[in-house]
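> call design_seq(struct)
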């Protein structure tokens, strides 16, 4: 979220507004999982930094509410980030309310949605040409308009001024990533310690079920190719081998990866192996050399170079962080 971190240079307090859209007669009830995942990290950092540096608020509205534009605009006024948040997958706002909500959040420097509202915005044509982290459970409900969005199976996405997150448990990772971009590693570490979170998933981490739900029927060969990669981490396959095994030409396979996953097969495979290596560095006692070999790297130098390019630190530094935390 490099462009998002530009807000860290502002002299005024950073202001985040969460617009929680809930079902009829549920305003003020227990928060949804997506909302709770955002609130806990933001609340922790707000207490740490104080109102002079960070302010946040929740504005709740029912999906069937009658509300005027000025009321919403007043709540979101001068927000640096405004997000629609909800887990109400089956109950979207009426078109007029959604228009008002969308118009209001778009007045913020950055705007977007977490959870079910990602689908609402996509179906309303607000995500045209934008990389969009649509919750996997919503793919079957996406209409033809949503096809104009670039649907990504990632946990969250930032494209220009628009931010989307699949919601649920990923809301915690998303909030912690935002905190790091705005206030730095110390603020993020404070929130992680408060919430007992050991690891923050990246936005590029995939929604596991999304791959098989979206591609299992519509793109069975793509789903099969991803499964082959996941099952062959140590003894890696070439792109040509994978293409042949799934019944595609290399060019056809590359085209499907580029269209649906936004990357090339070799790059996706490398990232998959590096994420597995990172997991082993943090969760196992195997040596760094052993982990490199277990993840398909022919030498320690090759492993270290690729790991550093992906994560910005060496495998040894990653392992040292684990030891220091312990």
């Amino acid at each position: 979220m490099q462009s998002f971190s530009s807000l860290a240079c502002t002299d005024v307090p950073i202001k985040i507004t969460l617009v929680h859209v809930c079902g009829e007669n549920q305003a003020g009830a227990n928060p949804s999982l997506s909302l709770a995942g955002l609130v806990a990290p933001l609340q922790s950092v707000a207490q740490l930094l104080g109102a002079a540096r960070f302010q946040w608020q929740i504005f709740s509205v029912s999906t069937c509410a009658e509300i005027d534009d000025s009321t919403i605009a007043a709540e979101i006024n001068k927000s640096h980030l405004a997000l629609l948040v909800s887990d109400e997958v089956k109950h979207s706002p009426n078109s007029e309310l959604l228009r008002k909500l969308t118009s209001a959040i778009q007045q913020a420097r950055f705007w977007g949605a977490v959870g079910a509202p990602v689908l609402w915005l996509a179906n309303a044509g607000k995500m045209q040409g934008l990389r969009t982290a649509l919750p996997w459970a919503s793919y079957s409900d996406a209409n033809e308009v949503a096809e104009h969005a670039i649907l990504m199976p990632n946990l969250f996405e930032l494209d220009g001024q628009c931010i989307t997150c699949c919601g649920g448990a990923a809301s915690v990772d998303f909030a912690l990533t935002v905190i790091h971009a705005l206030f730095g590693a110390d603020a993020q570490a404070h929130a992680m310690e408060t919430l007992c979170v050991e690891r923050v998933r990246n936005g590029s981490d995939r929604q596991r079920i999304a791959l098989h739900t979206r591609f299992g029927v519509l793109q069975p060969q793509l789903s099969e190719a991803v499964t082959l990669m996941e099952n062959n981490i140590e003894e890696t396959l070439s792109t040509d081998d994978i293409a042949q095994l799934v019944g595609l030409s290399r060019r056809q396979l590359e085209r499907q990866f580029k269209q649906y996953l936004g990357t090339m097969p070799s790059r996706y495979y490398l990232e998959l192996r590096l994420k597995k290596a990172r997991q082993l560095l943090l969760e196992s006692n195997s040596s760094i050399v052993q982990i490199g070999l277990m993840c398909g790297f022919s030498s320690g130098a090759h492993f270290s170079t690729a790991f550093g390019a992906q994560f910005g630190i060496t495998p040894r530094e990653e392992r040292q962080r684990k030891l220091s935390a312990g």
